[in-house]
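User: I'll paste a sequence; please echo it back and then give the predicted structure.

Assistant: Echoing your sequence first, then the prediction.
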Amino acid sequence: MDHYIDIRLRPDPDFAPPMLMEALYSKLHRALFDLQATDIGVSFPQHKLGVNARTLGDHLRLHSTQARLTQLMQQPWLNGMRDHVSVGDILAVPAEVQHRSVARKQFNTGNPSRAKRYAKRNGLAEEQAQAIYDQVAEKRIALPFVQLNSRSTQQRFALFIEHGKPEPTPRPGEFNHYGLSPTATIPWF
């Protein structure tokens, strides 16, 4: 994690930034999946929290080694997005930076199929299980998210992303095909 590359969305009168970030992140997910990359992390330096403001922003930062980022950027994963983004150079991470985890956070959103499975596992009536799930789902989620299709399961889902607290030292680990990790950290600056 000694190098990074910044990808910024360009203003577009036809497409809102969240829609463009969704398209960009979907393309990145496919590229990471195809490369079977577990050594590329992501962060969103301009993300915003809050029920009414949650957004990943218009800035995606990729973190890895110079060689791995070069390999990724040689792939045609940005085809179709070049008019909508500006891509920076691969640069060394500045000295004396903080580190953060950037991870997927899952929530119980009251999905009826989940309630049905919960009822079966716990010997409850489906209506009781759905009532339990509805109470939990009423909580307002303040994390930013994107709607994506999983490359492995083809399922569409909301990917909620949580930036952890800044830490003074990095933690090693692997990243998933979304560039996220519950344990590994990325440089934060």
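The two ends are 13 Å apart (CA to CA). The chain has a mean pLDDT of 91.
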